[in-house]
Amino acid sequence: MIRFENVGMRYGMGPEILRDISFDLHAGSFHFLTGPSGAGKTTLLKLLYLAHSPSRGLIHFHGKNVVTAHRSELPALRRRIGIVFQDFQLIDHMTSIENVSLPLKLAGGNVKQVEDHAAELLEWVGLKDKMNARPSTLSGGEKQRVAIARAVINRPDLLLADEPTGNVDPQMAERIMNLFLELNKIGTTTIIATHDQQLVKTMNADRFHLEEGKLALLKAKGALKAPALQKANPVPQGGAT
Predict the structure, then answer these.
(1) I want to staple 156 with a disulfide (CB 3.0 to 4.6 A). Which of 82, 93, 136, 172 is the partner?
(2) What is the bridge-based pairing of β-strands 56-61 and 64-65?
(3) Do 162 and 3 touch, CB atoms closer than 8 A?
(4) Per-residue pLDDT tens over the stretch 69-108
(5) What is the distance between the alpha carbons of residues 158 and 187, in angstroms, rounded to a whole number?
(6) 159, part of any domain
(7) Domain limits for position 211
(8) Starting from the edge strand earliest in sequence, which strands make up the sheet with 214-218, in order?
(9) Which residues are CB-contacts of 57 (< 8 A; sequence separation ≥ 6)?
(10) Number of independent structural domains in the chain
(11) Domain containing 16 — which CATH number?
(12) 99 found inside a domain
């Protein structure tokens, strides 16, 4: 699905943050991304999201060389990617349900079906009473959950999440991870950057580890596991079109 070949990344004339990154990411896989602060995890996610071009090397997405692709081709590719960054990137003048609905509305989805599915996702992440709230009235954890719901509503080919459980309580973190796992089971390739070593250990997933600009793949022994979940509503299965 994705191939990096000898990718390097620097900002301006500074030192390389990423050096000689090469890997194949197969469709339907699930990986954690770990490494110390400043190792380049967010930069790698931005390369995967096609937000930046590498300083050198090649990146292929579904067989297409995105480094040499025309800029007009990139938006269609990005629409196949769900992204949750730590700054959330919510639209200030839109309510929670409008923010979550946006990806499917832009894709031409039926308005009523889209809003019904957005409402179901917001309820799943514990924001049933915040559907009509604007970002300025939400806490950091609430904004994060809106961003997560928006990222997964269109069942993306690739889901990238930067510390998605960093601002929520343990029970909500489990619900969010279960939602990601359910999407992965139906084919969404998933990469989650985290400092939570207990989460990595509990779920027993393969992981990419970044340190000093170099990437290593650490294979898990055994099958991927879901975190222990509280009994709750089932994961939303809607898929508005």
Answers:
(1) 82
(2) antiparallel
(3) no
(4) 998 999 889 889 999 887 788 999 999 999 999 988 887 7
(5) 9
(6) yes
(7) 2-218
(8) 81-84, 158-162, 189-193, 30-34, 206-211, 214-218
(9) 4, 5, 6, 7, 8, 20, 21, 22, 67
(10) 1
(11) 3.40.50.300
(12) yes
